[in-house]
């Protein structure tokens, strides 16, 4: 990997971690556990649209590991890896099917997949089938917050990287 690319990916990792830390300081918007804006996914979307899926995966994995070490625990690492991994897969599929356009739909797919992944992990960890009652609320919140982060990623990527060839 070239030094320039490694440096740019490190900067995106730092930015993603900073956004995550700021979002962690925001009090919950609704009294349902697990509902967050997912603002760090903006960085993932920008990378999917302007770099490669491999680059997005590296930044996502580094952010999840660092945020779990700094702000969470082993259980939060498990939830984040599953949610983040499914979200990345859904956003990769959305980016490919939509040819990099309609980032808000890609974000909605990612938000829905993220919450689905976390609910699956919660079901496995707790062995409580009643936890699936959260699914409609988590689905709705994942879609709505994903639409928001998708729009942010679409606009931020367009204006942040205009004319800059950071990954070439």
Can you characterise this structure?
It is a single chain. With 168 residues, the protein is an all-alpha fold. It is 75% helix and 0% strand. It contains 6 helices and no strands. It is globular.
Topology:
Layout: H1 3-25, H2 41-50, H3 53-71, H4 74-97, H5 103-126, H6 135-160
Comma- or semicolon-separated keywords:
mainly alpha; globular; 75% helix; 168 residues
Radius of gyration from CA coordinates: 15 Å
Q: Please trace the helix and strand order, writing H or E for each element.
A: HHHHHH
Number of strands: 0
Structural class designation: mainly alpha
Task: Provide a concise account of the structure shown.
75% of the residues lie in helices and 0% in strands. The chain has six helices and no strands.
